[in-house]
Amino acid sequence: MTARSTRCTTAAKTRTSRLAAVAAIAVAGSMLLTACGDQTDSATKEGGTAANSAPLFSKLPADIQKSGVIKVGTDASYAPMEFTEGGKIVGVDPDIAAALGKQLGVKFEFVSGTFDGLITSLETGRQDIVMSSMTDNKKRQEGLDDNGKKIGKGVDFVDYFSSGVSLLVKKGNPQGVDSLDDLCGKTVAVQRGTIYEDTFKAQATKCGSNKLTIQAFDTDAEAQTRVKAGGAVADLNDYPVAAYIAKTSGGGNDFEVVGNQTDVGLMGIAVSKDKTQLRDAVKEALDAIIKDGTYAEALKKWDVEGSAVKSATINAGK
């Protein structure tokens, strides 16, 4: 029994003995009993064990119910999907996460890291999920590297967004790039560990002796800087991200998006294979916010309504 509970019990006994003697003290004792009850309720809430009124709280694993937090790994360099503004991680993904949090009754706590280390953060338990514009594909689901070698146990995806990829070039498109085929014999910049790097590698194979040189960086911001400086002719990114960069960087004077979207696919919230209860709770929450309209509101805020999915799916990427 806690010290706080002992004080309340003692006070209750004292009040009982005085009830027969003094009515006024009985009233005061009743008020004191109520106060002690309030303190106990408060302690329960502080301990994270109080009942939560959120619709889907009970669907979560016990450890997350207790902590009240879902730890989210992200690479906050992909505006408008996730980026840092005023010391805070903001964007499409954080807004969707906030809506999910209301359904689940917990806080989604974002921590930024390098993209190619995000899945590892799930395997080590450092993060509970990844929300970082991550493409859902079989390679990631099965834990395979580019050569099909098993390097991890893989992850499950709750698919929440659909998008193609687009080329981002220097404003004015000085190299006349309009498609991936136009990149043969040139140098491109890209973020390491992304699906875009895979796309460039596939194109390099296609280019053959007319060599496509790929410069890979830890962040997409570095790749953008390389293109802006003229050291590379193009970067590759999800269409919403490329369009946002073209619109905002240098007041719209640094970059432009060229060509058509290619490789349209699903983005997913990544969850460890052994956390199926968490995965299923997140899926149910996503379906709920799609149904109640808060999902659409989050996408509209960032002008990416065209990338909405109609319902939540698991591992639907190819």
Would you summarize the structure shown here?
Strand 3 (82-85) and strand 4 (88-90) form a beta hairpin.
CATH architecture descriptor text of the largest domain: 3-Layer(aba) Sandwich
Structural class designation: alpha/beta
Strand content: 15-25%
Number of E-state strands: 12
CATH superfamily of the largest domain: Periplasmic binding protein-like II
Largest sheet: 7 strands, mixed
Order of helices and strands: HHHEEEEHEHEHEEHEHEHEHHE
Shape: globular
**CATH T-level topology of the largest domain:** D-Maltodextrin-Binding Protein, domain 2
The low-pLDDT segments are 1-50
Measured distance between first and last alpha carbons: 55 Å
Q: What is the level 1 CATH name of the largest domain? A: Alpha Beta
Rg result: 26 Å
State the main characteristics:
single chain; 318 residues; alpha/beta; D-Maltodextrin-Binding Protein, domain 2; 3 domains; seven-stranded mixed β-sheet; three-stranded antiparallel β-sheet; 11 helices; 23% strand; globular; disordered N terminus; Solute-binding protein family 3/N-terminal domain-containing protein; signal
